[in-house]
Amino acid sequence: MPELPEVEITRRVLEPHITGRRIVALKVREPRLRWRVKDDLPAKLAGQRITGTARRAKYLLIRLEAGTLLVHLGMSGSLRILPAGTRRRAHDHYDLLLDSGNTLRFNDPRRFGSLHYTSDDPSRHPLLARLAPEPFDPKFDASYMWRITRRRRTPIKQVLMNSRLVVGVGNIYASEILFRALIRPRRQAQSLSREEVKRLAKEVRAVLEQALEAGGTTLRDFVAPDGELGYFSQSLYVYGRKECRACGTPVRHLTQQGRSSYYCPACQR
DNA sequence: ATGGGCACCTGGCTGC
DNA sequence: TGCAGCCAGGTGCCCA
User: Which of A91, A124, A157 is the last residue of a domain?
Assistant: First the structure.
C-alpha cells in the first residue's frame, strides 16, 4: 500500500494522538508478520511514554523513553487510532493500548509489515543502517543522482526502487517520476545524460512532495488513519492508465523484476 | 560490489 | 456459480 507519502501521512495523522501518551500495553494477536514479533516486546513497552514520531524511508519510528519502535506497513498495512474496545476486524494483528483510552491498531492482510524495537540509536539498526539519504535531504541532489547512476547497467527504474540508492519511491511513484523526467524505465542508469539526471533528482522530490500534499494515492485500499482518501491517483500520468494523461498516446506496460512498469512511448525517451 | 530471482502472505478480479 | 490463475502500493536474503 504505502510509499513514502502514505507513510508520512500516517505519521502526521497519528502524531497528535500518540505523542505524550503512555503505553498501557501491547497486545499482539498475530506475531507472524514479515518477521516474528518478539515475545518479550509487550513487557519492554508497558509503562513507557511515547516521546515523538519520525520517519526514515518507509519506516515509521515511534520514539519511546527508553527506545524506538520501527513500524513498517509492508504492502497492505495500516494504522488507525480507535477508542478502546472497538471491535476487531480480520487482520488486526496488534494493538498499542494508550493511557488516553485510545488504541493504536495495526491491520495488515498480507502480513508483509513488521514491528521492531531497539533501545539503541535507531539509525544503527540493521534495517535502517544502509538506507540511502532521504529524498528531501539536501544531500539528495543531481550530483548524488549522477554518482549513483555512473557505471550501473541496471535499468533506471530499479535504481529508483533500490533502497540503498533511493528511499521512499515505490512502484507507483517510480513510473510517475520517470514519466515526469521524460525517461523510459528500461534505460540503463549509466546512459542518462547530465540533463536527465538533473530532471530525475528534481522529479523524485517533486512527485513525493505533491503526493504528500494530495494526501497520498488511493488505488484500492490506502486510507489514512483519519479515514481520508488520498487523491493523488487523479494526478497519475501513466501508472495503471490506458492512455498518457499528457498526450493521449497508449501507455506501454512491461514487467521489471516482477513489477509492473508503465511509460508513454511518445513523451519518454 | 552488483544484479537477479525468490520468498513471505491474503484478497480481489478476470476469464473459462 | 465455481474455481484456477494472475495481480497487487515492499524488501530482505541468497546465489551467481
Answer: A124
Which residues fall within 8 angstroms of residue A125, CB to CB, at 6 or more apart? A70, A116, A118
Burial class (CB in 10 A: 0-12, 13-18, 19+), A244: buried
pTM of the model: 0.97
Torsion angle in degrees (nearest 10) through CA of A126, A128, A131, A136: -170
Please identify, among A124, A159, A192, the residue that sits at the C-terminal boundary of a domain: A124
d(CA A162, CA A219): 23
A150-171 residue pLDDT tens: 989 999 999 999 999 999 999 9
Length A220 CA → B12 C1' (Å) = 10
Statement: the CB of A132 is under 7 Å from strand C: no
The catalytic residues of A are 2-3, 58, 259
pLDDT digits (tens, 9 = 90+) for A30-66: 999 999 999 999 999 999 999 999 999 999 999 999 9
Give the range of the structural domain holding residue A49, as residue numbers without chain letter: 4-124
